[in-house]
Design brief:
Radius of gyration: 21 Å
Order of helices and strands: EEEEEEEEHEEEEEEEHH
Structural class: mainly beta
Shape: flat
Number of helices: 3
Strand order of the largest sheet: 10-9-13-14-15-12-11
Helix content: under 10%
Distance between the termini: 61 Å
CATH architecture of the largest domain: Beta Barrel
Largest sheet: 7 strands, antiparallel
Strand content: 25-35%
CATH class of the largest domain: Mainly Beta
Number of strands: 15
Oligomer: single chain
């Protein structure tokens, strides 16, 4: 068979962290014995393994601190190991640190900064649930051909046909530009619909069918439209989103989906920005999360 790894992308966040995302072939049977790992190399060096067992994920963040310039060439690739067949598949190599992954000029950074400030002032915090497009088929509801779900309310795959349904939540804050509501007759009274137009930074990578969960209200929205609102060269900076409110009788409001909306700490650590010298690896003796309150209280 051909390589199950169809794409690997990398971009650099404003704080220097590398953001890796990938897609796999959807019509392949993935087993627990398979292992997907992230490998890294500085140009001319050997490849080293940064993370293993990421087959159940769609992204990974390399947040290691570095003592060299952001633009220095650095490479990543994925390796899928299939021990049952003694096969290995390696993705194409992507660069990080050059203009392909970090193309921002000062003007582009200003655009992102303006939206970030608007989100901080009047935005809404929430979680992005990325829909699973590959992985083991749901054992409860997929038809005998293994191609489609026959139960849109399945508690195991949440109507997606892929075991698990959605990846764990990734922090995504937005600013709402408009909210429109409408009512329509339903079997029991009236059904109220809500459509939200919003903007957000163009990462993490958003796809049609993903779900956004609003903190505080626990409202859940299907993302139905994604339009680049601002771009620099070939890189999207800002997305304009259209989202429809999920009905309360939808499987995404069941207890089986609640744990998906928990914050995935892989994306954001929640720690305040540290001011110690930048190093490639973590420094010993760094304050732990619980110590920051004591430190700030003494200032």
């Amino acid at each position: 068979m051909g390589s199950p790894i169809t794409s690997l992308n990398c971009s650099i966040r404003h704080d220097g962290a590398r953001l890796l995302s990938w897609t796999l072939q959807p019509h392949i049977t993935y087993t627990d014995s398979m292992r997907l790992q992230v490998e890294n190399s500085r140009t001319g060096d050997d490849w080293t393994v940064l993370a293993t067992d990421v087959l159940g994920q769609c992204m990974w963040v390399d947040s290691r601190r570095r003592n060299y310039n952001k633009r220095m060439n650095e490479c990543y690739r994925l390796r899928l190991i299939v021990p049952d067949n003694h096969e290995e598949f390696v993705s194409s190599v992507v660069d990080a640190g050059n203009h392909k992954a970090y193309p921002y000029s000062q003007e582009a950074e200003n655009v992102i900064t303006q939206v970030e400030k608007a989100i901080q002032m009047s935005g809404c915090k929430g979680q992005l649930l990325k829909k699973r497009l590959w992985g083991p088929r749901c054992p409860l509801c997929v038809d005998f051909t293994g191609q489609a779900t026959v139960n849109e309310h399945c508690p195991r795959c949440l109507g997606t046909g892929i075991d698990g349904g959605y990846f764990p939540g990734i922090g995504l804050d937005i600013i709402k530009d408009s909210i429109s509501t409408a009512e329509a007759p339903a079997e029991l009274g009236y059904m109220q619909g809500e459509t939200v137009k919003a903007r957000c930074i163009a990462y993490p990578w958003i796809n049609y069918g993903d779900v956004w969960v609003e903190d505080g209200t626990d409202k859940r929205y299907y993302i139905t439209q994604i339009t680049p609102a601002s771009s620099y060269r070939q890189t999207n900076l800002i997305y304009a989103l259209s989202m429809n409110l999920v009905e309360l009788n939808d499987v995404l409001h069941s207890k089986h989906a609640d744990h998906k909306a928990d914050m995935n700490t892989v994306w954001e650590s929640g720690e305040p920005h540290r001011t110690q010298p930048v190093t490639y690896t973590d420094q010993p003796g760094q304050s732990k999360d619980g110590e920051w309150d004591d430190i700030l209280a003494g200032l």
